[in-house]
Amino acid sequence: MTKNDRANFGTKLGVILASAGSAVGLGNIWRFPYETGNHGGAAFIIIYLGCIFLLGLPIMVSEFLIGRHSRANTARAYQKLAPGTHWRWVGRMGVLAGFLILSYYSVVAGWTLEYIFEALTNGFSGKTPDEFISSFQTFSSNPWRPAIWLILFLLGTHFIIVKGVEKGIEKSSKIMMPMLFIIILILVVCSVSLPGASRGIEFLLKPDFSKVDGNVFLSAMGQAFFSLSLGMGCLCTYASYFSKKTNLTKTAFSVGIIDTIVAVLAGFIIFPAAFSVGIQPDAGPSLIFITLPNVFQQAFSGVPLLAYIFSVMFYVLLAVAALTSTISLHEVVTAYLHEEFKFTRHRAALFVTGGCIFLGILCSLSLGVTKGITIFGLGMFDLFDFVTAKIMLPLGGLCISIFTGWYLDKKIVWSEITNDGTLKVPVYKLIIFILKYIAPIAISCIFINELGLLK
Ligand code: TRP
């Protein structure tokens, strides 16, 4: 495929919104709060922020430059930049990671549809916090319901993917992203004004470093990669649709800032509310689904209509955020099959959707009927989450930083980052230094420490 056949994002804003749409998703609103809750709050957040700015942003710039320079799907990108070498495995591992993430991510995305349905049919009204917990458990362990929502969600993603890059991805992001932001802000105000919310705010702001261990570092790093959509060629694939004029460093910075703000705000919605109604912050993946309905009940207890409107809006928002992310995951695998195996785009997308429906249903069942079946002590859902977020993505990040820092011709790196010298990028040297030394060393140390080799 030559340069000119590939579609492009239409505008500068479109580029940022589509990338931010990929980054902002369940990772911020669902995964970030429960990881924060599991790892003790503020201290985790500080380490997480360190990972975002020190590792995440430079690696994002490198994914961007690899994608835009090669103008190909992620596996082909490495083949073009490093022909005949094993670097292409980095791209292939990314495609596999994307496929696995999409499978279990769609399960949770499906849950958001169930909650939209609950909200629409006024199913939250009059329930106690305990009832929210038990109804989530009943729902998520049911063999059928989550599977149906998951299939619907993947079909929605499929539909946007086959409409193509500019029409599908860019347009939907442009409308959805700003909407999402406004609703989040409103909900923060509601949550922090609940009675007893201050303990939740303290949990978010007052670090307790006594709880920090190697696992906290690995989780924070994994969460940073997951949330920024990094380490598997997702942003690399998007960057292959960027124009020559896109400022890669600035785009990375904007995406990083937007993503971080949304995650932290999600924390400010969840924890004040959780502490207010007595839900444990370490409830795990169910956290937002058992906490949030309480916010709507309590914050608007006198005005049921408002409770109704806000609960519907919130879950719609969450589904939308998830959709812009599933689109980006799906696109990586679809572009790979389409360009490498000469499938039509349509057919490639069908394979991806079908495969993810199959694996997604298995993941969903692992939370209910097949709960007893475990590998390394983890059910399939947890296993997919662990293997992708805590192993494949950081490993991908490690390879990407070494590739750009050491292997790739510096002329290419320089001309991509500065757009052939037309941009002044004061942090250029810093980016290269991080990619060469800091990122590889830091990621390796966190891995080695987690494997217990340092002790
Ligand atoms: N970043 C998205 C979120 O926070 C999820 C996601 C989309 C992702 N594309 C990805 C995660 C690529 C890892 C890699 O919800």
UniProtKB/TrEMBL annotation:
It is found in: Membrane. Pfam families: SNF. It is a multi-pass membrane protein. It comes from the Bacteria. One of its GO terms (molecular function) is symporter activity. GO terms for cellular component: membrane. The keyword Transmembrane applies. Keywords: Membrane, Symport, Transmembrane, Transmembrane helix, Transport. The keyword Ribonucleoprotein does not apply. The chain crosses the membrane at residues 12-30, 42-66, 87-107, 147-165, 177-197, 217-241, 253-275, 305-327, 348-369, 389-409, 430-449. InterPro entries: Na/ntran_symport, SNS_sf, YocR/YhdH-like. Belongs to the sodium:neurotransmitter symporter (SNF) (TC 2.A.22) family. This is Transporter. The lineage of its organism: Bacteria, Pseudomonadati, Bacteroidota, Bacteroidia, Bacteroidales.
